[in-house]
Amino acid sequence: MALKYNKPRSSGKRTYVRVNYKKHLTAKKPLKALTSGSHNVSGRNFQGKITIRHHGGGHKQKLREIDFKRDKDNVMGTIKTIEYDPNRSSFISLVAYQDGAKKYILTPNDVKVGQKIVSGKKVEVKVGNCMEIQNIPEGTFIHNVELNKGHGGQLIRSAGTAAQVLGHDETNKFMLIKLASGEVRKISNECRATIGFVSNSEHNVINLGKAGINRHLGVRPTVRGSAMNPSDHPHGGGEGRQPIGKDAPRTPWGKRHMGVKTRNKRRYSNKMIVRNRKVK
What we know:
CATH 2.40.50.140; single chain; four-stranded antiparallel β-sheet
């Protein structure tokens, strides 16, 4: 694996492990036409009130416009660069198409600069190509999977992940897909997916080493509920250190969590799940 380790010259550097980007990336700056500025809202809504805790600060970032739909059919594209994207864990690639268009896509694993890729309803089963799921052979690993036709990929977009095609269901209207979590799910035949694993498979091995690096990523400190007052958290209060109680753990808003099922039993998409990820 292309990981980078530091000499233990400080406590932060001692356990710091990161991806060696020099061995993966081929460009330092993104294409200006496909980037835009982003306003840091720090987890606050239009009233300025915090709605998502532990967000704020961080380095200034630019948004890259990613083509999740891959709907430029039967037009050959060439991988021009492999780049870093601060908004996701995987790498992104700039694709130059024969008609002159340029788009960013999620970089599949083992894709090289200069490689040809193509999208369509039925194209060659090759890493980086995008096609309808019904035309992908059983056992093939895929990513950037659509949930609804034409909406663009919503599943399997994190670094190093992949889903597996299991085959048709009994109606021949859906394909059975085994997700990275172990869940088996029905997805429409006409939805699209990209062949291969997502790039940057070493992402799960990195160790930030110190809290300061998390602050650069826009993550603020997290305080334990048991260290708070009873007005701030269900676990708070008491003299000294106290147990959190028999009905715990709970969220700051009193909702059960950590091992307790909270999914709505009447959720519309339950009928699409063949096997739950919790089942061993």
